[in-house]
Structures are given as C-alpha cells and as structure tokens.
Amino acid sequence: GFYSEIKQLENSIFRIIDDEIKKKKNLKENDGREMLFVKKAIEKFLPDYTNLRVRRSPRPHMLINKGELEFNLNQLSDGEKNLITLVGDIARRLSIANPESDNPLDGNGVILIDEVDLHLHPKWQQLMIPQLEDIFPNCQFIVSTHSPQVLNHIQPENIILLNNKNNKLTHSFAIESYGKNSDRILEDLLGVDARPSDVKNEIEKLYRFIELGEIDKAKLLYKDLSTKIIGGDPELTKANVLIKRKEIIGK
Fold this sequence. Notes:
- Helix content is 51%, strand content 16%.
- It is of the alpha+beta class.
- It has a 3-stranded antiparallel sheet.
- Helix 1 runs parallel beside helix 3 and helix 7 packs parallel to helix 9.
- The longest helix is centred in the first third of the chain and has 23 residues, at 2-24.
C-alpha cells in the first residue's frame, strides 16, 4: 500500500543521508546529492509542495511544506502521497544511475507505472503525463490507466487499447483522443456510457418521439428529464429547440 511505499522512500532517503554523513561528516553543508534532486523533481512537479526534508526526532519522519504550512508526509492525502512518492522515487533512481551527471533528471530510462491515475484528483490526472514527460524528458513511460482525464492529454498514436475476451488478449490503437471531452473518451475508447443508462435511454426515447412527430409525448418526457437533470444539459437544450421547431413549422 501507499504507507509501505512511503516507508520505502523514507528508508531510501535515510540511507542517502547516512551515506553523506559518513562521507562529509557535515549534514548541514550537503544533505545528499540524491535528496537534492528528489526535492527538485517534486518542487517542479508540484510547485506548492516544497522543502521535503527528514527529521530524526522524536522519531524518523519526513516533512514537506504545502504552501505556508508544514506537514508530516503521512498527513497528506493518498493522492498527494502517491505523487510525491512516485516522482521522488523516479528522481532518486535516476540520480543513483547517473552519479556524474549535473542533472540526472535528464537521464535515460524506461519506467512502467500501473494505474497512473490511482487516487488522483482529475486535475492532477490531466497533468500527470505531460508533467512526467517535462521533468524526465529522456525517459520512456509505459503506463496503464482507465482515466479519460489522462487519455485526452495523450496523442492517439501513443495509446494502445487492450481487450481480454475468453482469456485471449488482443490490442488495437486509438483513432482519436487528444483534446476530446471526457464523455467521448469514456464511450469511444473505454466502452463505457458517459451517462447513467436509464437517463441515456430516456434521452434516446425523447429524440424518437421528436422524429416521429409525437410532440405531446416529447414535451412530457422533456419536462420529466429537465427535473431530473438539474442545471440543464446540451442534449435537452437541443431537444427543446427541435420540439419548438416542430410546433412552429412541422419539420
């Protein structure tokens, strides 16, 4: 789970710092090359989250500033911890793999991430892939996701759709994705109705009434749906226009 992942990251950072203490005998001057790039990557990915650091008293723990406030890492949400752990771990590994580099975040690598959107707010889901590509420009990312917010920020040639039927795995490529709204991604790529099925069926019935010229039935159904879907809906607005047009000119 996330707690164990964070403990692993903490333990890795503790080891980094211990190594530096042994080498430098002065933690204040240099709190670890790897730690430096972990902090740099996190602050670039999450500008409001700064100064990741370790405190050993009263027990070993990690602190980070979120805006003006100081937090223990374990006080953050699962999404926040997931991001910090993920970005920090990639930066740490690149730093270890490129010991002579002035900027190991530019190092090469192939990184696999399962369910990259897990526990993330939709805004962070949208930023996830572009940010990872920006901070680690020479890494290839192979990720899995079920999030339309992730997929509509990726060009279709980079999306492989997997289908498991009768224990046989097949694949296809997305035709379009980038910039599409979430409804289209859900329905066209993920095969999921964007609306609740009962509402979708009612809207389809409404359009059939309009097409058949059964305007009284259409008006009743339109009124019923308008009370169910609070705040209006583009499909209902369009249906209302069609109903009025039918009433006026019969077309």
